[in-house]
UniProtKB/TrEMBL annotation:
<dbReference type="GO" id="GO:0046872">
    <property type="term" value="F:metal ion binding"/>
</dbReference>
<keyword id="KW-0808">Transferase</keyword>
<dbReference type="InterPro" id="IPR050929">
    <property type="entry name" value="PFKA"/>
</dbReference>
<protein>
    <recommendedName>
        <fullName>Phosphofructokinase domain-containing protein</fullName>
    </recommendedName>
</protein>
<feature type="domain" description="Phosphofructokinase">
    <location>
        <begin position="145"/>
        <end position="377"/>
    </location>
</feature>
<dbReference type="InterPro" id="IPR035966">
    <property type="entry name" value="PKF_sf"/>
</dbReference>
<dbReference type="InterPro" id="IPR022953">
    <property type="entry name" value="ATP_PFK"/>
</dbReference>
<dbReference type="GO" id="GO:0005737">
    <property type="term" value="C:cytoplasm"/>
</dbReference>
<dbReference type="GO" id="GO:0005524">
    <property type="term" value="F:ATP binding"/>
</dbReference>
<keyword id="KW-0067">ATP-binding</keyword>
<dbReference type="GO" id="GO:0006002">
    <property type="term" value="P:fructose 6-phosphate metabolic process"/>
</dbReference>
<comment type="function">
    <text>Catalyzes the phosphorylation of D-fructose 6-phosphate to fructose 1,6-bisphosphate by ATP, the first committing step of glycolysis.</text>
</comment>
<keyword id="KW-0479">Metal-binding</keyword>
<keyword id="KW-0324">Glycolysis</keyword>
<keyword id="KW-0547">Nucleotide-binding</keyword>
<dbReference type="GO" id="GO:0003872">
    <property type="term" value="F:6-phosphofructokinase activity"/>
</dbReference>
<dbReference type="InterPro" id="IPR000023">
    <property type="entry name" value="Phosphofructokinase_dom"/>
</dbReference>
């Protein structure tokens, strides 16, 4: 997604053993080759309004198409403000960082999209590694930051708000931090709150979002007008798919106006479905709470003859919550997830498994992620294709549908 983030610039010297060039027809990707070497230098001051990066290169050996290294890069303030001055990171003076041998993330540090690759296969897509850079592009005393939360609720939102505020204030010395209340609508309804470490000290012990939230209400021009009028130069947006589509539009408008405003998105998904990060916030809490529901279902089905318990868990397009909760519980007989198609009837089908399990054990528990089996529900004439206020596809309810399918065949409790 096109978010403007503050990071250090590309290296200006030789980068052995990799080469660097803009990839044709994919301006957001950079291609490297292990068998090439390029000298990189910044060109004279020229506009970079519509370019991801501008470099000149002298190739000294041939590239190997079999050994591609692709960098899926993110936009940076200096893409459209090439003369932006840089400042030493205040963390250089931090006692916590002074004892670390490598204080900062290098511009060359990347994270591979695929951990496992074959010996002769291309090296694949990589992403910039997150973390503090040695140079920053804002003087802390000149920063006016804002934080906004949008979309649905998720465990850990208040913890994220607290850590952003404390990180900006305590680690970087930023004093001016605004909380935008009520989602994107809060930008132009003038709902704001001054945030300090003292204000957010205990919010991580509360559920929901301290700043309140809403879906929709995104007017890009009004939002950026408000950002400009208030002198905000760092925007932290916490949300899911729809929210980040909005964040991308905000960045594009900021870029069009040439504003020195960094737009950073913090992905809010308890589904843990972002492959290039270790774990999305709220995931562990969701798995723990899911186990409570599974335990309750197991207790109930054990108490009746032919008891079948169905526990529907969150997971639009990925089944991580369902899978991890299943593994942690040890009381689940069948786990249905979007990544693994299943069928109902015939040999090896779900109905056959239920019948065999009931004969063997007298009861069973099924965990189903909300995105599983959508094709079956839709095939029976249920309405599909609707979207919520954030533009996300509304899923059909697989839980009651599955329950109705199983009930006529079994006389036990469901």
């Amino acid at each position: 997604m096109d978010l403007s983030v503050a990071s250090s610039s590309l290296a200006k010297t030789l980068l052995p053993p990799f080469s660097f060039s803009l990839r044709p027809n994919a301006p957001k990707r950079l291609r490297f080759s292990r068998n090439s070497a390029f000298f990189l230098r910044k060109p004279p001051s020229i506009s970079r309004q519509n370019k991801l990066a501008v470099v000149t290169a002298i190739q000294v050996s041939t590239q190997s198409e079999n050994d591609d290294f692709v960098l899926e890069d993110v936009p940076h303030l200096t893409n459209y403000l090439p003369d932006l001055p840089a400042y030493p990171n205040p963390l250089m003076k931090s006692q916590a960082y002074s004892i670390v041998k490598k204080n900062f993330v290098s511009p060359e540090d990347v994270v591979a999209q695929n951990v496992v690759i074959q010996k002769e296969s291309p090296r694949g897509v990589h992403f910039r590694r997150a973390g503090p850079r040695e140079k920053i592009y804002f003087e802390p005393e000149e920063v006016r930051a804002c934080i906004v939360t949008c979309g649905g609720l998720c465990p850990g939102i208040n913890t994220v708000i607290r850590e952003i505020v404390c990180g900006l204030n305590i680690m970087y010395g930023v004093q001016d931090i605004l909380g935008i209340e009520g989602g994107y609508k809060g930008f132009y309804s003038k709902n704001t709150l001054m945030l300090t470490p003292k204000v957010v000290n205990y919010i991580h012990k509360r559920g929901g979002t301290f700043l309140r939230t809403s879906r929709g209400g995104h007017d890009t021009h009004k939002i950026v007008d408000n950002i400009e009028d208030r002198g905000i130069n760092q925007v932290y947006i916490i949300g899911g798919d729809g929210t980040h589509k909005g964040a991308s539009l905000i960045y594009e408008e900021v870029k069009r106006r040439g504003l020195q405003v960094a737009v950073a998105g913090i992905p809010k998904t308890i589904d843990n479905d972002i492959a290039v990060i270790d774990k999305s916030f709220g995931f562990d809490t969701a798995v723990e709470e899911a186990q409570r529901a599974i335990d309750a279902a197991h207790v109930e089905v054990e108490s009746v003859e032919n008891g079948v318990g169905i526990v529907k868990l969150m997971g639009r397009y990925s089944g991580f919550i369902a899978m991890y909760a299943t593994q942690a519980s040890r009381d689940v007989d069948c786990c249905l997830i979007p990544e693994s198609p299943f069928y109902l009837e015939g040999r090896g089908g779900l109905f056959e498994f239920i019948e065999e399990r009931l004969k063997e054990n007298g009861h069973l528990v099924i965990v189903v992620a909300e995105g599983a089996g959508q094709e079956y529900v839709a095939a029976e004439g249920h309405a599909a294709g609707k979207k919520d206020a954030s533009g996300n596809k509304l899923l059909l309810d697989v839980g009651p549908w599955l329950s109705d399918k199983i009930k006529p065949s079994y006389c036990g409790h469901l």
